[in-house]
Design brief:
The protein is an alpha+beta fold. The chain folds into 3 domains: 50 residues; 97 residues, no CATH class; 125 residues, Glucose Permease (Domain IIA), CATH 2.70.70.10. It is built from 4 helices and 15 strands. The strands form 4 sheets. Strands 3, 6, 8, 9, 10, 12, 14 and 15 form an 8-stranded antiparallel sheet that branches. It has a 3-stranded antiparallel sheet with strand order 7-13-11, with no helix packed on it. The protein is rod-shaped. The structure holds zinc ion. Zinc ion binds next to loops.
Length: 294
């Protein structure tokens, strides 16, 4: 094997003292130094890349944490909004159920749906479906509210019950004429009651007649809208004037025997589109639901 005699001389000259330093290095030493240098460099590069990667991962981690926090806040806010809506809807539902009870409607089906939606609210996906369910319930409530309001107006303006409690002494329809030979058509019912006792309006409305009218004697007529009017005849005294707004139960006059009457009583008549109808159903109706086939 041939011996390697490749030596190199490194001369370093000092500018200050004009001295020379001579370093003699072998070819293999240079090679080793080069290899060591390259290895060091690549290790350094590797470490740098790793450090950069770690820094990137860390930044990404912080970003994810921030996003997560923001999402949690959003989620909580959305939940709070939905809870507030739910509370409003529940209050509304409660109010509507009270109205429905007043009127006698059964709306238990709707309340069950609302109670069903309140349970099990979890992740954001569920929030969406919960919100959709709330929208659905809210629109049904809106519809219910409108129909209940209509119903309430109809209830208030439909004559129900007695203008005065008493015995029905003469019913609606064909009857023997109490004053002459033959028969006559009785357009209302006669309710026997003590002279001077109060007579009440059977529904909300506006007084359209208050005065004397032929065989009716002293008469009050109340218009309830939708073509409905009530007549209260033979009064001894009238307590209202034309144009007065009255509510069900308000006193409008007193029992008498004015006009074509043989004893003190109230002639109570209901007209629909100016045609007399049998008041019996209305007098004995407990609620508007009994009168839906008017
Ligand atoms: Zn009569």
């Amino acid at each position: 094997m041939r011996k390697d005699h490749r030596f190199y001389t490194l001369i370093i000259a000092s500018a200050a003292s004009a001295r020379f330093y001579r370093i003699i290095v072998h070819h293999r030493q240079i090679k080793a130094a080069l290899i060591a240098g390259l290895t060091g460099l690549s290790v350094l590069m590797g470490v740098s890349i790793w450090v950069f990667k770690q820094a990137g991962l860390l930044a990404h981690y912080h970003l994810v944490v921030r996003e997560n926090r923001a999402l949690k806040r959003e989620h909580a806010a959305a939940l709070r909004r939905l809870r507030a809506r739910l509370a409003a809807i529940e209050a509304e539902s409660h109010r509507l159920r009270q109205i429905a009870e007043e009127i006698g409607l059964n709306v238990s089906g709707d309340s069950e749906t609302i109670e069903g939606t309140t349970s099990g609210v979890g992740g954001p996906g569920e929030l969406d479906s919960f919100a959709q369910e709330l929208d659905r319930v809210a629109s049904r409530l809106q519809w219910l509210r409108e129909s209940l309001d209509d119903e309430r107006v109809r209830l208030a303006t439909t004559p129900i019950g007695w203008p005065i409690y008493g015995r029905i002494t003469s019913g609606y329809g064909l009857r023997r004429d109490p004053f002459a030979e033959g028969y006559e058509f009785h357009t209302g019912v006669d309710i026997g009651a003590g002279y001077g006792r109060p007579v009440n309006a059977t529904a909300d409305g506006i007084v359209v007649y208050a005065g004397y009218r032929g065989s009716y004697g002293k008469l009050v007529v109340i218009d309830h809208g939708q073509g409905m009017r009530t007549f209260y005849g033979h009064l001894s005294h009238i307590d209202v004037a034309v144009g007065d707004r009255v509510q069900r139960g308000d006193r409008i006059g007193r029992v008498g025997r004015t006009g074509r009457a043989t004893a003190s009583h109230v002639h109570y008549e209901i007209r629909f589109d100016d045609r007399p109808i049998n008041p019996r159903r209305y007098i004995f109706a407990r609620s508007i639901l009994a009168l839906t086939s008017r």
